[in-house]
Amino acid sequence: MEKMEGEKKKIALVTGGTGFLGKNFTAYLLEKGWEVVCLVRPNSRYAHLKKDGIRLVLGDFTQMDVLREAVHGVDAVFHLAAATAAVSIEKMFEVNCSATENLVKVCAEQEKTPVFVYVSSLAAAGPSTVQRPHEESDACRPVSWYGKSKLAAEFTLAQYADRVPISVVRPPIIFGPEDHEMRKWINAIRKTGFFFIPFLRPFRFSMVHSEDVSQLLLLAAEKGERMPHLSADELETFLRRLSSPKKLSEALPVLENGCGIYFASQTE
User: Fold this and answer.
1) Which of 2, 12, 61, 78 is deepest in the core (most CB within 10 A)?
2) Does position 259 have pLDDT exceeding 80, yes or no?
3) What is the pTM of this model?
């Protein structure tokens, strides 16, 4: 949404602003006329955000007063921050699930409730095939700690959906400017002429450009459908199934068809 002359700027809180997607998305928001606030850890590298005129709030997701300061007065919260690796599944859930709940809980306290856009992952849905790509209405079968923690965060958010307008975006592998990990892959192929394929069999990956994800996140905030409410009992049942490998082999429940969950990938 472009800012009209004389119109008050909308304000967005972005978490994970120091990361690869965060750098691209904050630049996109500024380009679209938004005022941007970033929650950053005191020991992170945030000089580039300061240079861009972004307001910084220093702290972490365990500090509720800091979260209240960050959320106060914003029109939208874009929760990009996440851990993709951890020493244990408990630590993974602490970062990706508990932190998300603390943030949405503070949003629910606000007199003017912001829209909450959560950047989940295609890993929350689990793997698919070329012949049958995932659809939003499919039941989820995550196989990794990361995927399980992101799906748990989605269901935790649904507990607050009666108080906070929430949309979820599930991007696959993201590439684009500032993507140092992808650059390592490309440089290795350039140097050796080889690319290691796990299990020595063909793999296909869903990928999407950071610019496309940035556009989708803003569209989700402005025009997206919202998640339905989920009761505490339903969440408890879900988390019990998520922690049981035997029951996880069955399909995990779908919230509802068209429930404010969006994939960000291309099938061709």
Assistant:
1) 78
2) no
3) 0.82
